[in-house]
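In response to reviewer comment 3 from the previous cycle, which asked for concrete evidence that the modeling workflow produces usable outputs, we include below a single protein chain processed end to end. The sequence was submitted unchanged, and the resulting structure tokens are shown without manual editing.
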Amino acid sequence: MFQTSTSGRPKPSITFQTSAAGNGKKAGTFAILLVALLTASGCSGPSGSDVRQAFDEAALSSASQSIDALRAGNYEEPPSEAPTPVKDANIWIVSCGQMSAGCAGISAGAQEAASSLGWEANLCDGKLDPGAMSACVRSAITAGADSVVLAGIDCQAIQQPLLEARTAGVETVGVLAFDCDSSGGEPLFSASTKFTTQYPTLKEWADASGRARADWVIDATSGNAKAITLFALSSTITTVQNDAFVKRIQECSSCSVSEGVALSDGDLGGGQVRAKFESALLKSPEANAVATPADTFFLLGLETAITGSGKSDSLHTIGGEGNGQNLDFIAKNQGEDATLAVANGWLGYAAVDTAIRVLAGQPGVTQGIGFQLVDKDNVADVTLAGHYNPPVDYIAAYRKAWGLQ
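The workflow returned the following structure tokens.
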């Protein structure tokens, strides 16, 4: 998931903002209007500290109220019907990089789904390298692929091969990947997988998950978060999620982001995650929370950095993805306290369902893929055979929709 290049993010300042969601917006707007009216009328009103306290209590209340719902998850059912899948299709699954647990999980799900249809399913490792990803797409074209699934690979990273695929009549499906129109260009994917009716697009889904992660941090720190965030410079989805997290944190005036750690592809592939985090922690010894959209970062050194810091008990840590090893970290209180889990296998099945529709000349539909907060309170309930088990039997649903049972 570490492809499309973006610029680094400056350390955010803390300002009063009206909330983008729910009770925070009402409370923030009320506080601002109250001060304005009292000042205009010459009456004495609440002090600045009183207004800030009311604002923070509203932000904390809003965050706390969302936690139970997040633990239950916001998944929907997969589509109940689909066009008849074409026979003997040749599909290529291009992983952003098999070293990324998330991309590897999506790719495995897509391979399983395609094989269940009797399709030829080829996996190509993008190795977190746009050059390797481009080579994979061109190999698929040469091999006469009917469709290419792009797992966590943003359009901007491979524009020319996508144009070549279009010319060759090869359908391309992005899953957890931003098309080029997200940055003002021409869309080049044949289709992108859709998520839920509430958050159909990847941007909406990513924004919602970033805000949800911030709600957990606000609640865990009792509205006094001093957070360190980590995101990948070359991954649009992690920067979008990080931005949404920061904006939500800024709605709590007693909360802040102490450091934002922007990780390059070289950092991720060269074992620098631990060193980058340790440097941020030295700069911000007051930090009491760590947030990242990618559980993979814990596997690449973040977990060892946290457990080795001597501050593991005082740092409230949350990731994303819900990889099996990360669930084990949560269960054992080993450097990770929570994750915003998504079923990577479901994403792979959803990509194949979208490919079925595109090959039949039909538009994609929402696939029911939400996310679920997993922490010490429910990790045992959602772990099956060492892996995250979402609250919906998506495999059975897809098999039924595809006429396989």
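The CA atoms of residues 94 and 254 lie 44 Å apart. We consider this sufficient to address the reviewer's concern, and the full set will be provided in the supplementary archive.
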